[in-house]
């Protein structure tokens, strides 16, 4: 094949400026993160009345709380009086939320309790912290900042069907969480998850454990599923690695019920927050489960190092975009989805 013919067949990635440009980063916030279902947490974080946690999506501070009637609520963590951030802690249990500026207080569902400096509580839209859509699926709490968005189940119908096979999911408990700042664009972290061409070189332990000759990446509308059996064939069940649009990854390994989730949250064009969480049937972990955590942690650290190295190349004059190998089709799929959302 001549060089010319070969060049014709190359398929190009998203331009590298999409990984460094502040305007594109801001636009992604509005067109992707303000419109998609985003994993916020797990119901075990808000088990009792008054339990809450705070969570930021692309610069939008939110509160997730459990009300007196047992219902979960999500709302902006912003005071409707003058715009102050209300709750400053990451989690806790409260009877009311109080704004520290002029002392307005709010019920657990975000509705105004008292506005001491006002003669009336008839404040229209200002009588409640702005509500956000919330849905629970398999004990995972998802939120959507777009009040017009179709439901989670409608948006991820095929994924829901696929995950329903894991009947143990709703009974898992959140056992451990780690947070790590990654010096890379959020898409670079997702890109890394969506292909396994790098596995043989970067993940020696992973490549010895799983059958790399039969490693599959299936594409679906709003998610991908990668799966592979164990090399030692000790179980029929493969490991499955799901990515869901736009920024959540979920892995389920063979063995006793388990799940790990990763949320990749954009902070800056070249910085992301990764929150990864382990779920097991009990918080008393067996030796095998502790080993699984170590294994997953190791693979992640190997990836984060690579992704940070990758980010250093995006802002140079060397190239303007990359090329996909045929087995980087998951990555290509994600980039198409990004382009579609950014139209
Ligand atoms: S800004 Fe919150 S009470 Fe005034
Ligand atoms: Fe990797």
CATH superfamily of the largest domain: Naphthalene 1,2-dioxygenase Alpha Subunit, Chain A, domain 1
What do the pLDDT scores average to? Answer: 94
What ranges have pLDDT less than 50 throughout 5 or more consecutive residues?
1-5
User: How many discrete structural domains?
Assistant: 2
Distance between the amino and carboxyl termini:
36 Å
In total, the number of strands is 19
CATH topology of the largest domain: Naphthalene 1,2-dioxygenase Alpha Subunit, Chain A, domain 1
CATH architecture of the largest domain: Alpha-Beta Complex
Shape: globular
Order of helices and strands: HEHEEEEEEEEEEHHEHHHEEEEEEHEH
Beta-strand portion reads 25-35%
Give the helix level as a range of percent.
25-40%
Helix tally equals: 9
> What summary fits the major beta sheet?
7 strands, antiparallel
Strand order of the largest sheet: 2-11-10-5-4-3-6
Q: C-alpha Rg, in Å?
A: 22 Å
Q: Any idea of the CATH class of the largest domain?
A: Alpha Beta
Backbone structural class: alpha+beta
**Each distinct ligand:** FE2/S2 (inorganic) cluster, fe (ii) ion
Keywords: 2Fe-2S, Iron, Iron-sulfur, Metal-binding, NAD, Oxidoreductase
Cofactor: Fe cation
Pfam family, one: Rieske
InterPro entries: ARHD_Rieske_2Fe_2S, Rieske_2Fe-2S, Rieske_2Fe-2S_sf, Ring_hydroxy_dOase_asu_C_dom, Rng_hydr_dOase-A
């Amino acid at each position: 094949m001549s060089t010319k013919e070969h060049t014709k067949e190359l398929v190009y990635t998203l331009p590298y400026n999409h990984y460094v440009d502040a305007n594109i980063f801001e636009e992604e916030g509005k067109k992707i993160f303000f419109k998609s279902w985003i994993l916020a947490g797990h119901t075990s974080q808000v088990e009792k009345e008054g339990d809450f946690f705070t969570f930021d999506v692309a610069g939008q501070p939110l509160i997730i709380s459990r009300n007196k009637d047992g219902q979960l609520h999500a709302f902006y963590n912003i005071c409707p009086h003058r715009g102050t951030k209300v709750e400053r802690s990451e989690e806790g249990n409260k009877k009311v939320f109080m704004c520290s500026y002029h002392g307005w207080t709010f019920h657990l569902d975000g509705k105004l309790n008292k506005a001491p400096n006002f003669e009336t509580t008839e404040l229209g839209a200002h009588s409640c912290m702005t509500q956000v859509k919330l849905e629970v699926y398999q004990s995972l709490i998802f939120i959507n900042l777009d009040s017009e968005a179709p439901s989670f189940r409608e948006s991820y119908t095929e994924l829901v069907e696929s995950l329903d096979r894991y009947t143990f999911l709703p009974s898992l408990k959140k056992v451990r969480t780690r947070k790590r700042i990654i010096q890379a664009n959020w898409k670079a972290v997702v890109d890394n998850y969506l292909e396994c061409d790098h596995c043989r070189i970067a993940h020696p332990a992973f490549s010895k454990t799983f059958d790399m000759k039969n490693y599959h990446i299936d594409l679906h509308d709003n998610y991908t599923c990668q799966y592979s059996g164990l090399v030692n064939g000790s179980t029929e069940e493969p490991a499955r690695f799901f990515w869901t649009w736009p920024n959540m990854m979920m892995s389920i390994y063979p063995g006793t019920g388990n799940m790990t989730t990763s949320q990749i949250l954009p902070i800056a064009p070249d910085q992301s927050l990764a929150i990864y969480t382990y779920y097991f049937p009990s918080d008393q972990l067996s030796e095998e489960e502790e080993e699984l955590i170590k294994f997953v942690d190791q693979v992640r650290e190997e990836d984060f190092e690579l992704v940070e190295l990758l980010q250093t190349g995006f802002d140079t004059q060397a190239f303007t975009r990359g090329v996909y190998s045929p087995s980087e089709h998951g990555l290509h799929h994600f980039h198409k989805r990004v382009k579609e959302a950014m139209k």
